[in-house]
């Protein structure tokens, strides 16, 4: 299990290959990557603030829960902070399990909890100014399924 | 003395990321009342508790939680990670 | 939308990066990779047979269904046939969508249908001999959720 | 004349991957009956239809489907892709 909270960009392909290279016993690897949506015209940059110390603890706790609930061979969470340009990768999650149901469920669980329980705050920067991204009711509701 | 931290728009409204606060507040709610009484910017930041979250020593908590033994309190809006 | 049925190995990392590089408007990319389970001791090789012609049609039809059901920016399916060693990647699916729920749902849908509706048959080769992998009731049942 | 294809253990039991069959069978079930009457290896391969699937011109179909106009029939076990 690896967890990294970092300002630097990461390489989705390299991270995926490194992760999948050491998952003996796994038949299924799922990755999720969150990107800054780049809708052509109004390219939105993003500024991500976080709570150093609590961030790592919160993510580690979420990963421990996932490990306890599903049969996981391994899991990975990388989450960036700081300023990101449109199209850039914000974060990624990877899970490896003997079977696909566990790999998918654990990845979705990690994402749902990272969205609403890891101390990150996103600010969108566009030509119109800067706006803090509001938490969505559906993201809070998504936690109820677990 | 406890460390009080502010993040995102709470930080922007209050105008600083962290400060040390000398307080005898028994609960988070009491601390919020003390801070809100200080200055308008605090009152504004704390005006809608439904839009706020609090962490005590880096664990999510609630507004009625006691502050005894707590060293670090953080106020912030609902998180938007992922 | 790209679909490849091939004997050659593919590079998960390179495919993931190539896929994620052209998904303007997407905020979420999900990949699934199926591996030949390599449990150390009894390294199982796998032989995958398929039905050339029908395979491509069946996968294209499944991808069209996914595209019709979810808001997808793009999707990718790569599936190998022939002989694979333990630990090798059998196949991968990638989906890109504005939001994570669609990317996850479409990837799981594609996987469930590829499992039971794309004409591939797996044979496991071990020290004990060769055995055709039996279809699982739970895989057929998984289709009912869609 | 139709092309009849066999995959996986159906191919192994019958001993060939494909053959041309001259038939007037009206349905898939009729064709199965004709083939099973030929030789033991066919009867064995078709002994449990619940363990078999059929595709007509590369589309999954059912055993009671008519063969009129069909050029390619394929028999195989439940698929195990992914």
What does this structure look like?
- The complex is a heterotetramer, with 2 copies of chain A (146 residues) and 2 copies of chain B (82 residues).
- Chain A is α+β, with helices and mostly antiparallel strands and 146 residues long.
- Chain A has one domain: Alpha-Beta Complex (Aldehyde Oxidoreductase, domain 3), CATH 3.90.1170.
- Chain A has a 4-stranded mixed β-sheet with strand order 1-4-6-2, with helices on both faces. Chain A has a 4-stranded antiparallel β-sheet with strand order 5-3-7-8, with no helix packed on it.
- In chain A, a hairpin with a 2-residue loop joins strand 7 and strand 8.
- In chain A, helix 2 packs antiparallel against helix 3.
- Chain B is globular and about 30 Å long.
- In chain B, a hairpin with a 2-residue loop joins strand 3 and strand 4.
- Chain B has 3 helices and 5 strands.
- In chain B, strands 2-1-5-3-4 form a 5-stranded mixed β-sheet.
- The model of chain B has no long low-confidence stretch (mean pLDDT 97).
- Chain B has one domain: Beta-grasp domain (Ubiquitin-like (UB roll)).
- Chain B is an alpha+beta fold and 82 residues long.
- The chains are: A alpha+beta (146), B alpha+beta (82).
- Chains A and C meet through helix 1, strand 2 and helix 3 of A and helix 1, strand 2 and helix 3 of C.
